[in-house]
Amino acid sequence: MIAPIIVDEINKQIQREYANAYAYKGVALYFESLNLHGISRFMFQQDKEEQEHADKLIKHLVDRGGNVTLGALPLAATSYDDPLQAALTVKGMEEDTTSHIHELYALAQQQNDYALQVLLHWFIEEQVEELAWSAELAELMGQFSAHPGQLHMLDHHWGKRVK
Ligand SMILES: [Fe+2]
Ligand SMILES: [Fe+2]
């Protein structure tokens, strides 16, 4: 038996993961428009990963007999003032996601939902990685954005992170 409040909150997180996927697609298209193909590829990969996060949560709900709801997605930007603004947007998005995952974990503890707690261990660890690379990218972008040559070098190196 899964508590109705847990079902509601997982559905909200599914919605957020898809919204993040959509936002990453927009960020990827923005970097593509700047011919920063390495960072663009990386962002397209994030788009796919966020969809996989939503899928993990959907499977969890389905396995436990919870009802999945799929709502409308917010608009996603495909242009930004500059690469730094795009990187800061991504960093802020991952910070928000981390808070939401932690809130969901606290709820799972409060409701004695052990199955959800175990699933969320994976998400909590994933967010450690997401915060690390997004902070690093924003930091490097801040240093290099005024120097197009260095930006292309960053792009080249960042593209190597794509699996
Ligand atoms: Fe995610
Ligand atoms: Fe993420």
What does this molecule look like?
By secondary structure, this protein is mainly α. It has 5 helices and no strands. It is elongated and about 55 Å long. It starts with a helix and ends with a helix. One fe (ii) ion (FE2) is lined by residues 20, 50, 94, 97, 130.
SSE arrangement:
Blueprint: H1 4-33, H2 37-63, H3 83-110, H4 114-144, H5 148-159
Helix pairs in contact: 1-2, 1-3, 2-5, 3-4
The structure holds fe (ii) ion (2 copies).
One fe (ii) ion binds next to helix 3.
Which stretches are low in confidence, meaning pLDDT under 50 for 5 or more residues running?
none
Q: What fraction of the residues are assigned to beta strands by DSSP?
A: under 5%
Q: What series of H and E elements makes up the topology?
A: HHHHH
Distance between the termini: 38 Å
Secondary structure class reads: mainly alpha
Gyration radius from CA atoms, angstroms: 17 Å
Arithmetic mean pLDDT: 97
Bound molecules: fe (ii) ion
Principal-axis shape: elongated
Main sheet?
Answer: none
Helix content: over 70%
Strand tally: 0
What oligomeric state do the depicted chains represent? Answer: single chain
Tally of contiguous helical segments = 5
